[in-house]
DNA sequence: TTGTATGCGTTATCAC
DNA sequence: GTGATAACGCATACAA
């Protein structure tokens, strides 16, 4: 503390306070505060003197102090609990971020994007969230039994989760129906006459991954040959390659593939063409997300559109509504996932 | 305010304070505070009683209040002043963010990523920055005469800019030498025997864009035919396509192209092959950034490596050093930009 | 219309 | 070791 004071006083000039302004303008702190908050009942002389004084002493309000008394900060956090690198790779996260920022920005809230990966990050972030520096929080990818989730629920911080982690009870969430999306696109693949359809199922440890597998299974009438499902860890290009190699080795005559994300599908596509299979001639491939990967593929991918931007926006709206005192929608908010049919199947 | 109190008291339970803990444990606030901050000189009985009380009343510290007295928040902002969409598209920004977050996370600071686009965003952000909620700030892409820049300089907020906006004087910055990078890669293109070399020069309104053009010009001995330079607005794929079409129309016999970013080069490449030119057979193409675009191209791009992650890390380190009381490095910090020679030239 | 007094939740400086 | 008490910078109910 004394160090900080020293720095404050000597290296930088001390920040002017309301008191300094009041002294300079020859009025009381209360009057200055009223001017600052744009209240009526201030004489024009007082206002003029105060404006001049503010400019002279270079006053700028201290939000931390204001927070303490108003109990609000004007900022809403967007928490991304993912391996750091995913933040760069996953186009969904970026779109969610954009949608949330648009909505918050319109409501004149400052969005602060917070990312956490390691245990230490998570603990620090949980501390930060509990600090009262944020009026609310949007949580992009919570895990089960996540310290972040428990802090949010314990503090009853106005929040909206994206996706539906199993252990939230009181908080709002917005999600897509992964089961339905996967079911529909798989059905369309079946409808094109494919007989031997496999799936590259990534991220089975997440609800999204597990749900997409469930949808695939449903579309195929409930029972699928397990050897037609290649489980991989991440929604990534390279895991898509690995999964496709596995499938191709087990079933050289495979003629349809549902990849649980577009990145996975892109990897599968490249492995297929490298193996001499034509797409969609020999094998039909479909993905999930409708991310930039889908259009970058050759042929462009048929896929399930994930409304990432709208998810962000809806989550932001949900938090804003809670801030207005409205109750949380029980059961969550679900967004549509239309099928986008292109050339890969 | 009264609304907030109401919400606090009724809808949610009131947050327990140090006082509540002190009452519950039968000690004074001072002692509680000492326990909280891990100081010695606390009897083990007191400590035990306090720990129990904390658990019982569900105490969680209020950072806003702590900030007020300690004058620090443990958070550092990362400001991105760009069109929102660029945040998704520009791989450099994401890498910078990752590098910065890694360094800050190691130092146990919470990074808060703040993005601004519109005038209103910028004003709100400037207000936020001046609020004392952040101990320091990394600024990814400042403009000239940017309210954000002026707030930072006025408040003498510990800061590090990435790149070197013209109107910063007291703040630290980390940058790459765009002139040198462009000069070197152009020289290598010349050395491969290309005779008619053009440039697609994006973002000439930024120092980076202008510097890359300057480097190109230097490598060509100072005078270049202006018709061999196609100026475009953004470092984007589509602007790269447009620039290449322009160049090809003016000089059908062009045999070398320096694109001022990899995304631009990717656009150029596709236009060239669509026009029946082989790369690198007929035309050699080089880019700038060494982003994921470079490897995605066919053939893979020869380019200038931009150490984006390291830029973020260096900027974070610069801010952290200032927080330790060290003075700002005059003249900035420059990072190397090695050439990565692949197959496109 | 304005000034005064009090409180927001913490940490820090003292005496004890 | 511990407990008062004074900051921190601001907003606001109330008195004037």
From TrEMBL, chains A, B:
GO molecular function, one term: DNA-binding transcription factor activity
Signal peptide: none
Keywords: DNA-binding, Transcription, Transcription regulation
All copies of domain HTH lacI-type, residue ranges: 16-70
InterPro entries listed in its UniProt record: HTH_LacI, LacI/GalR-like_sensor, Lambda_DNA-bd_dom_sf, Peripla_BP_I
Protein name from the UniProt record: LacI family transcriptional regulator
Organism: Agromyces atrinae
Taxonomic placement: Bacteria, Bacillati, Actinomycetota, Actinomycetes, Micrococcales
């Amino acid at each position: 503390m004394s160090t900080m004071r020293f720095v404050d006083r000597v290296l930088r000039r001390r920040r002017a306070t309301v008191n300094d302004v009041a002294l300079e303008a020859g009025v009381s702190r209360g009057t200055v505060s009223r001017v600052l908050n744009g209240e009526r009942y201030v004489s024009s002389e007082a206002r003029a003197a105060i404006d001049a004084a503010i400019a002279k002493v270079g006053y700028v309000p201290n939000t931390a102090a204001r927070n303490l008394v108003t109990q609000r900060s004007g900022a809403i956090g967007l928490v991304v609990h993912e391996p750091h690198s995913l933040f760069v790779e996953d186009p969904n996260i970026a779109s969610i971020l954009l949608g949330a920022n648009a909505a918050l920005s319109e409501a004149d809230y400052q969005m602060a994007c917070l990312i956490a990966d390691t245990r230490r990050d998570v603990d620090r972030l949980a501390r930060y969230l509990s600090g009262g520096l944020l009026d609310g929080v949007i949580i992009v990818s919570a895990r089960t039994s996540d310290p972040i989730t428990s802090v949010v629920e314990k503090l009853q911080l106005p929040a909206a989760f994206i996706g539906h982690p199993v252990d939230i009870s009181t908080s709002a969430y917005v999600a897509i129906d992964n089961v339905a999306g996967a079911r529909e696109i798989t059905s369309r693949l079946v409808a094109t006459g494919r007989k031997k359809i496999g799936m590259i199922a990534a991220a089975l440890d997440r609800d999204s991954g597990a749900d997409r597998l469930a949808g695939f299974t449903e579309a195929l009438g409930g029972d699928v040959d397990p050897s037609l499902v290649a489980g991989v860890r991440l929604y990534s290009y390279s895991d898509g390659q690995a999964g496709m190699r596995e499938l191709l080795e087990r079933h050289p005559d495979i003629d349809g593939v549902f990849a649980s994300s577009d990145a996975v599908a892109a990897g599968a596509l490249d492995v297929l063409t490298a193996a001499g299979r034509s797409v969609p001639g020999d094998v039909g491939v479909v993905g999930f997300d409708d991310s930039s990967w889908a259009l970058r593929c050759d042929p462009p991918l048929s896929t399930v559109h994930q409304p990432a931007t709208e998810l962000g926006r809806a989550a932001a709206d949900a938090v804003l509504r809670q801030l207005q005192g409205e109750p949380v929608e029980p059961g969550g908010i679900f967004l549509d996932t239309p099928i986008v049919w292109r050339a890969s199947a």
